[in-house]
Design brief:
Number of domains: 1
Order of helices and strands: HHH
Distance between the termini: 9 Å
Oligomer: single chain
Helix content: 55-70%
Radius of gyration: 14 Å
Length: about 110
């Protein structure tokens, strides 16, 4: 379907949050959006208030996670993440990126 996932997230690990938004999220957000559209899963509307880069990244990660869950449910995929070993919000965002790569890969495999 499109994105190479093996260690894909690792190349974004050292990037700052604004750069993450324009690299990792741009690739994955749009990719998952196309999958959701194929499966007739609605995509949430973005809030209309102005958001900082960090707030926007948080919103997009939350949206991505919610839509991935709906796709997994529709396809019968059971995702069991390990507990993140992180202590900061930034670390949690990066853990989520790795998790999303694994989840998208499983979805692509299920879709063939």
């Amino acid at each position: 379907m499109g994105i190479k996932h093996e260690d894909h997230w690792e190349r974004f690990w050292g990037e700052d949050i604004p750069t993450l938004r324009h690299s990792f999220l741009a690739d994955h957000y749009n990719h998952v959006k196309r999958i959701a559209k194929k499966l007739d899963i609605p995509w949430p509307e973005r809030v209309s208030v102005p958001l900082s880069d960090e707030e926007l990244v948080s919103w997009e990660l939350m949206t991505l996670g919610n839509v991935l869950s709906q796709i997994e449910q529709r396809l019968g995929i059971q995702y069991r993440p390990h507990k993140p070993d992180v202590e900061t919000e930034d670390g949690l965002k990066r853990w989520m990126m790795k998790s999303f790569c694994n989840r998208i890969k499983a979805i692509e495999e299920k879709l063939g």
